[in-house]
Specification:
Layout (H helix, E strand, L loop, with lengths): L6 E2 L6 E7 L5 E5 L9 E4 L4 E4 L10 H4 L3 H5 L2 H10 L1
Parallel strand pairs: 2-5
Antiparallel strand pairs: 1-2, 2-3, 4-5
Bound molecules: zinc ion.
Zinc ion (ZN) binds next to loops.
Amino acid sequence: MATPHPRRCNVCPAYVYDLVHERTRGLAPIDVDPVREGGNIIIDLDRGEYAVAGSGLWRHLNHFVTCESAAAFRGHPGAVRARRARL
Ligand SMILES: [Zn+2]
């Protein structure tokens, strides 16, 4: 598999990799930049995969968690408000 290229999130300026989960093969946007603390994802760009690994230093986060419009992804009531606010 070709090394994934970062892309811009559809709703915020962040860069993400679209990677598949090592076992479920589910596609998820993973933040390109790791965080010093609080991340729980290890990425393997050669394989285009990510794995949830528990918390550790300099791990990545699922962009669904960090996106400034994360509520919109999850369909929370707040997401509806956010969408309306942009209309
Ligand atoms: Zn985003």
